[in-house]
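WARN no homologs supplied; continuing
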Amino acid sequence: MLPVNAERFLADLHALRQFGAAGVGKGVVRPAYSDADIAARDWLAERMREAGLSVHVDPVGSVFGLAEGTSLLLGSHSDSQPEGGWLDGALGVIAALEVARASAEASGPPVSVVSFQDEEGRFGVTTGSAVWSGNLSLEKADGLTDRDGVTFADARARMPGRSEAFVDPSRFSGFLEMHIEQGPVLDREGEAIGVVDAIVGIRDMKITLVGEQNHAGTTPMQGRRDAFQALSQFNTLLAERFANVVTPHTVWTIGHVSLHPNASSIVPGKVTFSMQWRDGDTDRLGRMEAIIRETVEEVAATGGFELSFGPLLGLEPVDMDPRLRGALETSAETDVPGRWRKMPSGALHDATNVSKLMPVAMLFVPSIGGISHAFGEDTAEPDLVTGLRVLAGAVEVLD
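OK structure emitted
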C-alpha cells in the first residue's frame, strides 16, 4: 500500500477545521465564497503546491491540484453548510491530498486533487461540479441567487486567482471520492467502511404562494388568504398523496421557509419555501414532481393564491463504475476483512456530476450517531485513518 502518513493527514484535517470553526465541539461555518471558505481554499492551494501539484482555480472557484500527465482524480469539497461539521467534504479533500503526496513520495501513480466549490448548494445543487460537468451552464449558474439575494456571478467574483478556463477532464482516468456516511448504518453495525454502489437522484425547487397581508386581530379567520396556512395545507396533502408512490427509502423535505412580512400581528401575505425530494428511481422522481405541482396548484386555486415556481434543479441517480468500485472493495477486504459493506448513498455528492465526464466511485467511513450537517458531526480518528488506507489501497490496485 502507498505509505500514507496518518499523523500528517490528521494534522491537515484539523488545520482545515480552523477556517470557520464555530459552535460547540468541532462545528464549522464555511459557506461557499465566505471569507472562511476563500481563506481555506488559499491554504489548500499552498498545501497542493508543497505536494508538487500544479494549482488551477477554475472560473467558479473549484481548486485543482494537478499531477503531470494522465492521473486519477481524488477529492470532494471544502465548503460547509451554514451550520456544519468538520468532516463533510473536507475529509475527502484532505485524504486525496495525503494520497497524492504519498504516491509522489513513493514514485507511485500520478494522483490529482480537487476541492469543488459550492457543493453544499448555497446557490444551487453541487454547483461547482455541475458547471464543470456541463450539467449546468455557467450562464445559468450566474443567474442563481442565495437566500439573501446575492448572485452566483457576484459571489464567484470574490475568488482570487480564478482562471478563465476549466480543467480538461480528459486528463483524468477516473474519480474517487471519500466521504463520511452522514447516516447511522456503519456506526450502528460496527463496520469500518462502506463502498457505495449507487447515489440517489435529487430534485430541488422553490415555490411561492402570494395571498393577502392583513391585520392579525381584525381579519376574520373565514376568508383569510394566509400564506402560512396554505403551506401547512399543502404539506399535509402532500404526505397523503405520496403514500402510494414512495418507498421507505424515499425522502422529501421543506427545508427553508421565508414568510412575509414575518411579524406576529400580521397575517402573512407571502411564503416562499424550498421543496426537495430524493429517490434512486428517475421515474419515481418525476411522479413526485407531478404530485407536488398538482397539489400546490390545487391549494392555490382553492384559496385564491398566486402561485409561482422557481427553476427545477436536480441530478439523476448514478451507479458507481464497476472497476473503480471493485478496487475499493478489494482494498477494504484487505484492510478490514469482513468489516465493510456495499451500500447506497442517500446524500448527494460531486461524484454524481463527475460521472458525466469519467468513471467514478465512492467510499464511506462511519458517522458517529449518524449525525451530519450539524456541529455535532464527528468520526473516530482511527476510522478516518482506515478510510485513508482503503483509499490509498484502491489507488494502488488501480495502478
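The two ends are 11 Å apart (CA to CA).
OK
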